[in-house]
Specification:
With 863 residues, the chain is α+β, with helices and mostly antiparallel strands. It comes from Camelus bactrianus.
Length: 863
């Protein structure tokens, strides 16, 4: 008990027992098999606890497991020991002391040099001229808490010494987030210098992009050889596309593509299909100019400078950050800031708003003991653990404490400085939530709206049991499309999580002022005089709401009544109202010159919002529905050939892929089925098939294909023939499940589309809320009456419908000319007053700029 007291500061603990070299060796012998030397690729965490924001700067220091290299604060290290049985930890502690002062009051150097070997950020509040640091490392053996001071080369076994040195000298696992090293890690493409670009007259417009093959409008890539705009691959987080950019490369061999929406004067996301990795293109500006894109002026302002150089909208920056007001700092639970990691303010602002919502507080922080106790062996890679950690850090008040009074500081500093940590660094959280997203994983500024939707998607995919806090945002949108020629209509519903309001510039109430300002500004620029004070367009909120509800034209509308393309108009209404309504003001657009533009407007956003008049009404008396006929699907011959080839003869199975899977320990027959059903597309795709199907009773049974009749019958299955028993072909089910979708989801999609693969994928993407229902699956697969089964419908999306009356409780504002630059700030109404969250600074707001926001958060008013 004495040794435990020495480590944890308990009464009676005056120090650890001195041990001879032989004693230390004997003490470590039972644990030697668990002590590892970090290998290349191992992530060594020395700066931050996996469950909290404790660090070596914290009072209890940090414990690094010498087997997993995960780090734990004093409060959480026992949990890891109990769960894993790992006994040996390296304890890291940084001491901060006030320098001894001489007779004249100046600080004198210490007689012995301070030992600093930990790569930690120093406390910004501590002046290095007044304080000195000393780092301490020691091995601690659980459960008896024996301590072995480091370094101890003479007494420690060689393996332990090498492991300790490797841990202490290891680099941060977040080095890719370092803005100074991120770009340097990308190789220059070997195709960049001599890239062939076709002189085909293609010019890329600044907006309105869609995939040339499937009409998707997200995750689009511009091929730098022929200017084709095609969608990227489908990611496991449900973002992405249908892989048409990769198919285009396989067809034509054009190697380089750039992601639309990422182009800035500093570069863009470039991918080499041939090299199979992100690359740098040193001639990117020239390659983009070939298609009419002026990369070097993408973020250009009227004076030629970017947001990172100056703040072109000085008044906007001042108003949103409430510059000039003497803001009172706020401390305690719910008033913890988030440190900026370099363009991470978009994440900080969204997370502050998210964790001000009680449902998220209860789902994560309210379940903290259960989530932490049942976290996986690597909690840094678990979404729910990291969400709980962040929520607790923001809400506990543990990292937001007021400064100690001066007289107490004087007493404390006589021995050792104990700094108060104000604000937390979301580095671990950002690394995890962004790793599957090519945009967010970069160090560039991002769109807060895009991150919000990405976060909601992660919450959906990682929900805790039946509890899903993102239900509070989900609502149904009724879309009414009318054929202008026949006047017939079609009603459909889709799921959404935010309301996008257009900016009705034509409704500005100060048009005369705007015209006068523009004339004065141009004259001042021409004569090189100071610019006049900015005049901002004043837009009534009612005009934006009216613009939202007005009909819009439908591009490439195919009328099922005419069996041809026709003019069509679409109107959108709320089929349900969410409990929390997120409103996005669509401030950002592109000019004809590809330069991003931001509508610098003031909108009188209401504190109380009533949208009950936007409630959907469904099919009205006298309206005639469009026939339920799908447009003909034109599949390129090359795509048909590729799909046909996926259904291979069992004798042509790639045995090398089979053996790779078998070496992982899976049954041989299961491996053969995995390779067969994924069309010889490689071991990685087959492995995904195994993960999806390994719980099935026939998982390890031999491969049998009833009704297999060669390419002709396989082709019929792919392009439309459902069996007499209404069971879709197993080959196509396997192709869909190999993409990561559930088996019953694939069957339902194929049933709804007559086993047409392409339409089935569209069905899945348009029904993201498909829920697994075990009873439904059993009935669907076992019930002999297939006709009855085919009528069954999956459970609809869960919505919390209610009144359309809301009150404003938070908003996120953006400063700058583009979502890819600038700065985000969040204002939240707490305890009856507005609070500004500006990175790590949290203060009482004096003049919340509610008219300049970008994302607004409303909660339903109880009826």
């Amino acid at each position: 008990m004495q040794r435990r007291g020495a480590l944890f500061g308990m009464p009676g603990g005056s120090g650890s027992r001195k041990m001879a070299a032989g004693d230390i060796g004997e003490l470590l012998v039972p644990h030697m098999p668990t002590i590892r030397v970090p290998r290349s690729g191992d992530r060594v965490y020395k700066n931050e606890c996996a469950f909290s924001y404790d660090s070596p700067n914290s009072e209890g220091g940090l414990y690094v497991c010498m087997n997993t290299f995960l780090a734990f604060g004093r409060e959480h290290v026992e949990r890891h020991f109990r769960k894993t049985g790992q006994s040996v930890y390296m304890h890291l502690k940084r001491h901060v002391r006030e320098k001894v002062r001489g007779a004249s009051g100046g600080a004198l150097p210490k007689r012995r040099n301070s030992k600093i070997f930990l790569d930690l950020d120093t406390d910004d509040d501590l002046n290095s001229d007044d304080y000195e640091y000393e780092d301490e490392a020691k091995l601690v053996i659980f459960p008896d808490h024996y301590e072995i001071a480091l370094p101890n080369i003479e007494e420690l076994p060689a393996l332990v010494t090498i492991a300790c040195d490797a841990v202490l000298s290891s680099k941060s696992p977040y080095r890719k987030q370092d803005p100074d090293t991120w770009e340097n890690e990308l190789p220059v493409s070997k195709y960049a210098n001599n890239l062939t670009q076709l002189d085909n007259g293609v010019r890329i417009p600044p907006s309105g992009w869609k995939c040339a093959r499937c009409d998707l409008r997200e995750n689009l890539w511009l091929n730098l050889t022929d200017g084709s705009v095609l969608c990227g691959k489908w990611f496991f987080d449900s973002s992405g596309g249908n892989g048409h950019a990769l198919e285009h490369y396989r067809d034509l061999g054009y190697p380089l593509a750039v992601k639309l929406g990422t182009i800035t004067p500093d570069g863009a996301d470039v991918y080499s299909f041939q090299e199979e990795e992100p690359v740098l293109d040193p001639h990117l500006a020239k390659h983009l100019a070939h298609f009419g894109i002026d990369m070097l002026h993408m973020h250009g302002t009227e004076n030629g400078l970017r947001d990172n150089d100056i703040k072109p909208r000085v008044s906007e920056w001042e108003v949103i950050q409430e510059t000039g007001s003497k803001l009172k700092p706020m401390y305690g639970p719910g008033y913890t800031g988030l440190k900026n990691l370099g363009n991470s303010c978009y994440l900080s602002s969204v997370m502050q708003a998210i964790f001000s919502i009680p449902e998220f507080q209860r789902a994560y922080v309210g379940n903290l003991p259960r989530i932490f106790d049942y976290s996986p062996l690597d909690p840094t890679q678990d979404f729910n653990t990291q969400m709980t950690k962040l929520g607790h850090g923001l809400l506990s008040g543990q990292y937001s404490k007021p400064p100690v009074k001066s007289e107490l500081i004087e007493q404390v500093m006589k021995e050792e400085h104990k700094p108060q940590q104000n604000g937390i660094s979301p580095r671990m959280f950002k690394a995890f939530v962004s790793k599957s997203h090519p945009e967010l994983s970069s160090n560039r500024q991002q769109d807060a709206q895009e991150f919000f939707l990405h976060l909601v998607n992660l919450v959906e995919r990682n929900r805790i049991g039946s509890e899903n806090p993102s239900d509070v945002f989900r609502f149904l949108v009724e879309e009414r499309i009318q054929c202008c020629q026949t006047r017939k209509v079609r009603y459909t519903e889709r799921v959404d999580y935010l309301m996008q309001l257009p900016v009705a510039m034509e409704a500005a109430t100060n048009k005369d002022e705007l015209i006068a300002y523009e004339l004065t500004r141009r004259e001042a620029e021409a004569n090189r005089r100071p610019l006049p004070e900015l005049v901002r367009a004043k837009i009534p909120f009612s005009a934006c709401l009216q613009a939202f509800s007005e009909p819009e034209n439908v591009d490439d509308f195919w009328s099922s009544a005419l069996q041809a393309k026709s003019a069509g108009v679409k109107t959108s209404r709320f089929a349900s109202f969410p409990e929390y309504l997120v409103v996005q003001i669509k401030k950002f657009t592109f000019g004809l010159d590809w330069v991003p533009k931001k509508f610098d407007v003031s909108i009188d956003m209401p504190d109380l919002l009533d949208i009950n008049h936007l409630r959907a009404r469904g099919l009205q008396p006298g309206e005639e529905e469009l026939p339920d006929i799908s447009p003909p699907i034109v599949i390129p011959d090359d795509s048909k050939d590729r799909l046909m080839n996926q259904l291979i003869d069992p004798s042509d199975i790639d045995e090398s892929s089979v053996m790779q899977l078998a070496e992982m320990g899976f049954p041989l027959e299961a491996c053969r089925k995995a390779v067969y059903f994924t069309g010889n597309m490689g071991a990685e795709v087959a492995f995904n098939w195994i993960i999806v199907h390994m719980e099935e009773p026939d998982f390890a049974e031999p491969l049998t294909m009833p009704g297999y009749g060669g390419a002709a019958s396989a082709g019929a299955s792919v392009f439309g023939a459902t069996g007499l028993d209404n069971q879709p072909p197993e080959e196509i089910i396997a192709i869909i499940t190999s993409m990561g979708f559930h088996r019953n989801q694939a069957i339902q999609a194929l049933r709804a589309t007559n086993s047409n693969l392409e339409r089935a994928l569209d069905w899945i993407f348009s029904h993201p809320e498909f829920e697994e229902d075990s009873d439904f699956v059993i009935e669907m697969e076992n019930n002999a009456n297939a006709n009855i089964i085919s009528e069954a419908k999956p459970e609809g999306p869960r919505v919390k419908d209610g009144s359309g009356m809301y009150e404003l409780f938070a908003f996120i504002s953006h400063m700058g000319t583009s979502t890819m630059s600038g700065h985000y700030v969040c204002h939240i109404k707490k305890e009856g007053r507005w609070v500004i969250y500006n990175d790590h600074k949290v203060c009482a707001s004096e003049r919340p700029p509610k008219d300049l926001g970008y994302l607004y958060f409303y909660r339903r008013v109880p009826s």
